[in-house]
Specification:
1 helix; 168 residues; 2 domains; 8-stranded antiparallel barrel; mainly beta
């Protein structure tokens, strides 16, 4: 048996009925939550079941140098299974690390959500807690990599990563 719940906004009450024989109050509209457009974190949490597979050549460890206010290195490990978490480590200039979760692909541009647990602002560090990573394999076999603040369409950091055997 399905339960139907309706939020009555004017009264701030919730009316739930256990069967179709108990109608909801007239004029009440069901509340439907929709993630705001462009919010990759919310979109990632909202729909995890329909992920396209990651290409085998993308899975594995990737490293390179990046530059913002300082030059530092990155190592990102992309899992074979798109439902598993990968990892990201920033070092030699900044010290931050965390997980990445694959959230989708468009035109062979693969998108991941980053959640830092080491060196993040929430833990007293200097790195933003979350971000969006976009990666694209190029013909030379390297990975074109871009990092975005979670709510921005402008890349803050870009670089080219090369395949390695493992991350430090």
């Amino acid at each position: 048996m399905k339960t139907r719940c309706t939020l009555l906004a004017s009264l701030a009450l919730s009316a739930c009925a256990g069967s179709a024989s108990q109608p909801a109050p007239a004029k009440a509209q069901p509340v439907v939550w929709v993630a705001p457009a462009g919010d990759a974190t919310l979109e990632a949490e909202a729909g995890r079941e329909a992920l396209p597979p990651l290409p085998a050549e993308l899975a594995g460890a990737w490293t390179g140098s990046l530059a913002e206010e300082t030059v530092y290195r990155i190592c990102m490990k992309v899992p074979v299974d798109p439902s598993e978490l990968g990892s990201v480590v920033y070092f030699d200039g900044i010290e931050c690390a965390g997980t990445i979760r694959y959230v989708g692909e468009r035109a062979r541009l693969y998108t991941f959500i980053e959640r830092l647990s080491v060196g993040s602002v929430a833990n007293g560090g200097d790195c933003l807690d979350t971000g969006r990573i976009e990666a694209k394999l190029n013909a030379e076999g390297s990975l074109l990599w871009s990092w975005f603040p979670i709510d921005s369409e402008t890349a803050q950091v870009m670089g080219r990563l090369e395949r390695v055997d493992s991350c430090p």
